[in-house]
Specification:
single chain; about 280 residues; Rossmann fold; 7-stranded parallel sheet; binds NADP nicotinamide-adenine-dinucleotide phosphate
């Protein structure tokens, strides 16, 4: 009998791709969602493959982990102090004797402090708990342009972030999911941390040029100050915590923290990572 995998965050950007990868490998898995009816419309898998799961509802833990041997832990984005949401579930897994955990963290996270230090706190917790972990630290997703900036691009002709003139190796979420599927189904990845980047370092000015080509319209990166960025989010009706979250995250590009490439995608997959232009062409066709 194949080891059974629980995928948390299964309806999200990484999770959806991971489910497809695991299906292709004919793996034994269940996909977690807070709302199974909604989930069924997002991803077409057999209804038995869905299980109700909510990090903030302990009553969902037992059923979601029935006969489960391995867990992909992905915390929701835009959550300050995310460790407070995730650690009760990690404790539950440990007490139940489910030791194999693949954790979706973030490249450069060790440079974030205060209520943004959550990935680093969870990574340390996994290591100190003597769990059989693998940590994935992806760089900025190439899919952020489609997921978070669609209106900016289509209606305003801008990509709007506080990344300064820094560079980053945008990574394809499908490559991240392929790596996750491998480390969840193969042996030999225990105790490892994989830093997942794309194949090229690009600034937001470079990304704007690529977007202009792919969308066949002029896209500009205005390179706003933090004050202008905060003001624009507020004017658009976003609550202040979004800027509190985004400014330090994009600060990692601005200050060069994530301005390097690794070969870890190729090391695990045996193939080169996908470049940004290919992802944009796929996303915006
Ligand atoms: N975007 C980037 O550039 C980037 C880079 C590096 C790392 N990351 C990390 O990637 C993660 C986000 O991944 P993503 O973009 O794939 O997420 P996403 O597309 O926003 O999806 C979030 C997922 O979280 C689930 N979820 C939300 N609240 C939940 C709860 N209380 N309990 C259980 N599940 C819950 C949602 O499922 P349901 O609604 O179905 O329950 C959904 O599947 C974050 O941890 C972020 O730090 C992002």
């Amino acid at each position: 009998m194949k080891e059974k995998i629980l995928i948390t965050g299964a309806t999200g950007t990484i999770g959806k791709s991971l489910v497809k990868q695991l299906q292709a490998l004919n793996a034994n898995f269940v996909a977690g969602s807070r709302d199974i009816n909604k989930a069924k419309s997002i991803l077409n898998i057999s209804k038995d493959a869905w299980v109700k799961f909510d990090f903030t509802d302990k009553h969902t833990f037992e059923r979601a982990t029935e006969n489960v041997d391995r867990v992909f832990v992905l915390g929701p984005p835009l959550t300050l102090n995310l460790e407070q949401v995730l650690i009760p579930f990690i404790d539950f897994l440990k007490h139940k004797g489910i030791n194999r955990i693949v954790y979706l963290s973030a490249f450069g996270n060790e440079n974030l402090g205060g209520n943004m230090a959550f990935h680093n706190i969870v990574e340390s917790y996994l290591k100190e708990s003597q769990l059989d972990f693998t940590i994935l630290q992806p760089s900025f997703f190439a899919q952020n342009f489609k997921n978070y900036e669609y209106e900016n691009l289509m209606e305003r002709g801008i990509t709007f972030n506080v990344a300064g003139n820094g560079k980053v190796g945008f990574v394809d979420s499908e490559d991240i999911a392929k790596v996750a599927a491998k480390v969840l189904t193969e042996e030999g990845h225990s105790g490892k941390t994989y830093q997942l980047t794309g194949p090229e370092l690009l600034s937001y000015h470079d990304a704007a040029n690529l977007l202009s080509e792919v969308l066949n319209k002029e896209i500009v990166y205005p390179n706003p100050t933090e004050e202008a960025y905060r003001g624009a989010l507020r004017a658009g009706g976003a609550p202040d915590f979004i800027a509190d979250y985004m400014i330090p995250v994009y600060g990692m590009i601005k200050n060069g923290t994530v301005g390097r490439l690794t070969n870890h995608v190729e090391e695990v997959l045996g193939e080169k990572p996908t470049d940004l232009k290919t992802v944009l062409n796929r996303d915006f066709v």
